[in-house]
Amino acid sequence: MTPEEIRAGEYRQLIENPRLKEAFEDIERDAFETLANLSLGETSEKEKDAIIQRIQIIRDLWTRIDNQSKTRATKVQQVV
After folding, report:
1. In a domain, 46, yes or no
2. Contact 9/65 with Cβ under 8 angstroms?
3. Measured CA angle at 58 (ends 65, 2), to 5 deg
4. In whole angstroms, what is the distance from residue 51 CA to residue 48 CA?
5. Quick check: is 49 in a domain?
6. 54 domain residue, yes or no
7. Distance of CA 68 to CAs 33, 39, 49, 64, Å?
């Protein structure tokens, strides 16, 4: 196994871990609930933007882990 395949396997283990997936979903759900419960007049744009950014970071991180779990190993034939 190549180092890339080993690393991809480690990322696959993360993606397949139900507790990790649940943790990501909980964080995202909490952020959405916080955003939905904000009073329009009482919350600054900075606070709203920070919550939206938190959601984006969670989604981006999960996508990156998923992408890294897929090996992109290509076989190269040697020309003699």
Report:
1. yes
2. no
3. 10
4. 5
5. yes
6. yes
7. 29, 39, 28, 6
